[in-house]
Each structure stands twice: as structure tokens, then as C-alpha cells.
Amino acid sequence: MQQFDLKELVQKNITDSNHGHLDDWLGVLNSLSDFMPGGYDLQRSVTFDGEYDSSDIEGKLKLLHPWRKGPLKLGKVEIDTEWRSDWKWDRLKDHIAPLGGRTVLDIGCGNGYYLYRMLGEGAKLAIGVDPFLLFVMQFWAINHFAPKESAAWVLPLGWEELPEQLPYFDTVFSMGVLYHRRNPKLFLEQLQNYLRPGGELILETLVLEGNASEVLIPEGRYAKMRNVWYIPSIASLVSLIEVAGWENVRCIHVTPTTTEEQRTTDWMTFESLKDFLDPNDASKTIEGYPAPMRAIILASKGPGNAEPQLGNHS
Fold first, then answer.
1. pTM exceeds 0.90
2. CATH of 6-300, one of 1.10.10.10, 3.30.420.40, 3.40.50.150, 4.10.240.10
3. Distance between CA atoms of 140 and 37, rounded to whole angstroms?
4. By the 8 A CB rule, do 133 and 17 touch?
5. 145: closest CA among 54, 281, 11?
6. What is the pairing mode between strands 195-206 and 293-300?
7. Which residues sit opposite 227 in a β-bridge?
8. Alpha-carbon radius of gyration of the chain
9. pLDDT of residue 3
10. Mean pLDDT confidence for 57-83
């Protein structure tokens, strides 16, 4: 197996990105004033209380627009994000294996909002990977306000860049990723390689109403999104997850996405869900497909062989 040098890969993905806004984003991070941490709340919200000198923190944070996942409260600044991510967290948190003392990996974590919610539930380490540099910069901005001992990290990586075998996590989250995969079965199989035997997968994805064989493969865009390859019925999705080798597969929640949960705000001024739906029929996307509906699926990795030993992989 090829040697995996995490530090080198992270540096390469940032410095070699050639992103036109990278210097501006780094300038924002470097300009954030000293912050004196106070109390914080990660169980009911992501809130970091404290004091800072500058009155322009809000303006600086808005330079990291668009803010997708939240809401967040950083000192006196309340960030009203596009998604009410707290609603999704409330749907799943009481159904999953308790996170106390667990190590967690979040594939496609965005700005790390859910990582902090995981810490609020007692996770000892929460690591997220996301290839979009803006979201990584947002995480660094949020973490500026967090206690220094915070055990959340976002790495600027795609899941494909992780070692093929990394079975050291107790829980893996993958939310809003599966429908962007050309080969969903391969992706589901790979997710097992990040879990210890008996570990849990939390999968959230777009689904359809329909029978066990029904799958939508959109032509062109879906709700104005590019690269949407696979939207199955719930029964079809459960079957695929089982075929990929997962055990104890069950759907714990299904809900249509509403314009109260996903919407334009002062912190995300681009188009949002209302612009993606048929203006004359909100049950359809603007392309004529069924409107977004999302399911949360839980599954377990089989017992397998002996537990892996940290430090023995390369």
C-alpha cells in the first residue's frame, strides 16, 4: 500500500489549489481578533460565547459567504445559514449509537457544524473531510472561537484521498453525498473500510417514493444541481446497502425538504430551494422531477476479524 502522508497531502491541497479567493479567505482568518472564550453550548446548538475587541467580526465572517450549515453563534455574531442543520441533527441524534467516547468520521462534512454537535454528545474525536476549501476556511473561522482543546478537525480532502483501509472509527457519517456518486455501491463498500468491526454508519441521502426497483437517474440537472447520479426509493436504497455488505440496515426518518429548512438568508444570498422547485407545483423540481425528499439510514459493519491496531497501516 502506498504511504499516506496526511500533512503533505493537506498542505498540497491548500497551497496547490490555485483558488482565486484563497488569499482573501486566509486574510479573513488572519484578521480575526483575539477572542476570550466564555461558555459554550454544543448540545442544543453550536454556540461559543466570549469577548473580542473588534466590532467588525460579522463583516469579516460574511466574506466567507455562502454559509450553508448551521445555525452558528460565534461571540455576538449569529450566523443564519442556508440549512437548518439542527433540524436534521434532532431527527437522528436519539436513534444512533450513543457517541460518548467514540471516534467519528464525517465524509463531506462541510464547515464542520455536525462535528461540534458530535462533540456535544460526548464524542472524544470528530474528524471531517471535505474537498471544498471554502468550507474548510469556514471551519477554521468557527474553530477560532472554540475552546483550544476542541477535538474537531476538518481536513481539505475528498474521501477518495483517504487510505483505502482506515478501520479505526466507531461511527461514520455520510450525509448528502451518496447521490453525487457515479458508483453508489462502490462508495458504500468503501465506507465500511473506515469503521472498526461493529461500527455504525449514518447515511442521509435523497430518496423517492416508489417500489423496491425504482431509481431516478436524472438527465442533466436535478433541482439545478449538477452531478446527481442516483436517487433511489427507500426499499431500493436499503437493498443496495445490504448488497454492499452492511448489516442491520434500517430507515429511521423520511422527510420532504421544505423552504423553511433550506432557504436564502443574509449569510447565503444565492438561490436556494424555492428557486429549485416548479413555481406552479412545489411537489416537483424545476426540471419536473419529484421534489427533494431525504431519508436517514442506519447500518452496522459486521464483526469481521480482530480489531485493527493503530500504527500498523501505511
1. yes
2. 3.40.50.150
3. 16
4. yes
5. 54
6. antiparallel
7. none
8. 20
9. 63
10. 96
